[in-house]
Amino acid sequence: MHELAPYIDHTLLKPDATRTQVEQLCAEAAEHHFATVCVNGSRVELAHLLLEESNVQVCTVVGFPLGAMEADVKRYETEAAVDAGAGEIDMVMNVGRFKDGEHDFIVREIRDVVEAADDRMVKVILETCLLSNEEIEQACKLVVQAQAHFVKTSTGFGSAGASLEHVKLMRETVDQFAGVKAAGGVRNAEDARAMIEAGATRIGTSNGVAIVSGETASQNY
């Protein structure tokens, strides 16, 4: 097994992703022993069915991609995803409310998702391209306070994805209290290893096969 495979969340979040593409994604994940496949909520049940005989978890996104909806909607999305077979949840933080300084709201929102996930892994997407370094540090502290399991850089739908600078900052801030997921712009094994060296413990990418095959993909997520 390729040494990078256990780090990879093999991702397909395009709005026009078809059943055939999800089936291919799951087959690739099972073949290469990736950590998870990451799909939109309406594809969780299918992915769970396809992967139930493997060790690959099904991850889905909540509040995606903007994070700006009511917190109760994120909780309901999480409950529905769990019912459909999701083993991990990647939720988008409400960046606008965070920038307003509503830190108690952010902590409560994340805790609601953590509770709804019922002991399943929860990763919180900060969308670091919208934040200053100081804001990234503060957001990471709130994620740890809310007892989520990971901080994650990006949705892949923002103006930029993961950077080594941001991954290092996130790792330094959360220390051993949370994982760090680098997502967006990881296109080959060299990129992935650099992110891991910077402190990432999971890589979100649609380029998983290229990464473990020693190729460079054209896709930026």
Short summary:
Helix content is about 45%, strand content about 15%. By secondary structure, it is of the alpha/beta class.
Describe this structure in words.
The protein is α/β, with parallel strands linked by helices. The chain has one domain: TIM Barrel (Alpha-Beta Barrel). It has helices at residues 19-32, 44-51, 71-84, 95-99, 103-117, 133-145, 164-174, 189-198, 208-213; strands at residues 8-12, 36-39, 57-62, 88-92, 121-125, 150-152, 179-183, 202-205. An eight-stranded parallel beta barrel has the order 1-2-3-4-5-6-7-8, surrounded by seven helices.
Task: Describe the SSE topology.
Layout lengths: L7 E5 L6 H14 L3 E4 L4 H8 L5 E6 L8 H14 L3 E5 L2 H5 L3 H15 L3 E5 L7 H13 L4 E3 L11 H11 L4 E5 L5 H10 L3 E4 L2 H6 L8
Parallel strand pairs: 1-2, 1-8, 2-3, 3-4, 4-5, 5-6, 6-7, 7-8
Task: Describe the structure using short key phrases.
single chain; 221 residues; alpha/beta; TIM Barrel; 9 helices; 43% helix
Helical segment count: 9
- The overall strand count is 8
Question: What are the segments in which pLDDT stays under 50 over at least 5 consecutive residues?
Answer: none
Rounded to an integer in angstroms, the radius of gyration calculated over CA atoms is 16 Å
Find the CATH superfamily: Aldolase class I
Strand content: 15-25%
Note the quaternary state here. Answer: single chain
What sequence of helices (H) and strands (E) makes up the elements? EHEHEHEHHEHEHEHEH
CATH class: Alpha Beta
Count of all domains:
1
- The CATH architecture term is Alpha-Beta Barrel
Going across the biggest sheet, name each strand in turn: 1-2-3-4-5-6-7-8
- The global form is globular
The profile of the biggest β sheet is: 8 strands, parallel, barrel
The average pLDDT score comes to 96
Ends apart, CA distance between termini? 23 Å
Give me the secondary-structure category.
alpha/beta
Helix content: 40-55%
